[in-house]
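re: ur question from earlier - yeah i can do the single chain one, its not a big deal. heres the input i used so u can compare w yours
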Amino acid sequence: MPLQLPSGATQLNASTALLVVDNIDAQADHFIRELGKGVLRSYQYGDGLKLDHVQRGICFTVALGNVDNWGAFVGGQDNTDNTTQIIRERFLRTVNADVALDFLQYTPPESSQLAVPKPQYKLAYLLLVHRGFENILALINALDDPSVFIYIHIDHLAPASFRTEIEWLANKRPNVAIMDFSFTISWGHISILWAQIRGYFSLLDLIDFEYVINLSAFDYPLKSANTIFNHLERKPGSSWIDWVESLESNKRMETIHFGLPDSRNGRTRIRGFNQRGWSAMQDLFPALYKASQWMILHRSAVQYLRTSEAGKLLVMWAENTWVPDEEVFGTFFSSTPFVDNIVQDNKRIIWWDGRSDHPHVFIHKDAEVIRRLEGHFLWIRKADVVRDRDLKDMLDNIREVDEMSDRIVAPNRHPW
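and the output i got, formated as tokens:
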């Protein structure tokens, strides 16, 4: 790897490696000083993990070869037409996930327990929850089936009483378990993506399954477990991701986002710095896609993500982007052999009415719309079936009828 260090070193070897690290640190320290005070530097996940996202993000960006803003330290010479050009390339070729992303890995039981065959299920659900116990109870009752496994992530900042309620629920059901690590989840933050990935990877070690589906406390099934599985198996081995190639993704992925406290409301404001070009990653991911956070992944797709060196780099890159859960899965799978086996439909009734950053919350008065669409979808979100009992009765009746069409429609993008 050709280098351009202030010392004059031009080749990476054992004696210059420390100079490279020192240069990365110097560039990161310089930029951090420019940020000034008030930047949300660190974030706590669980009891044993606290990360400095600013330091990690800047160092990682520099190591990936973005030298336009950070000062050249990686390059090469291209003497085409007798002119010298600096060729930018990634200094960091891979990531040791056991070190950099160890919190995404489930620690299996003792070897004596590994000899026992893993339980087999057709469907695995990953629930990310932080409140709404009654809704979660209603959701699990609606999902419950011998062919279904339900894995629950409880937000690290959720009240202790809420955790106690979820633990009580899980202890009564052999096909319900709680994730052994809790992330502090913030909307638009890498923590959402981490919780999803940790859940998917842990499920690979805990059980055998065909498909994994992520849900929240305010989702609700429209079909039985058997109908859901049979519908997915019409395209065996497929994953279901609603994605579009997007210029918005370019802006998000090329900008480092840092949090700053907002004195007006006590929340965190997001400030972006356009300090890295996607050219450092373009050889791995030539197209950027924006996708819905809600998806269905086949087990083989999760296994591929877990072993992919390019995937590890993308997850590290996404740590410092805005809304990474909408950018990573689409971008990743579009550059894999799975691209031809992606169904562009997440099978949820979701409506973005354009008046809010949040999807429409359905009520029983939306019955006409729900009836028109329910035959094409497997779940609906958002639905508060505890506060709106008439809505729950209607959705339960739909699931009891259990009729499913093969036609794909997209109510979140088209007028009803």
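The longest strand covers residues 123-129. not sure if urs matches, ping me
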